[in-house]
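Following the same procedure, backbone shapes were mapped to integers, yielding the entry below.
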Amino acid sequence: MGEYAEMILEGSVCEICGEYIGEPTGYPQRCNECHNEITKLELEDEIK
């Protein structure tokens, strides 16, 4: 596996956009911007 893929799996970069988040957490995560955008899209889908 590549170094970048490992960084995504460790949680030090956003799994959506690849922005650096910080220290590894041990699991994939999203930056605040991607998290908010995904949440907004999910809410819009529920309303339809």
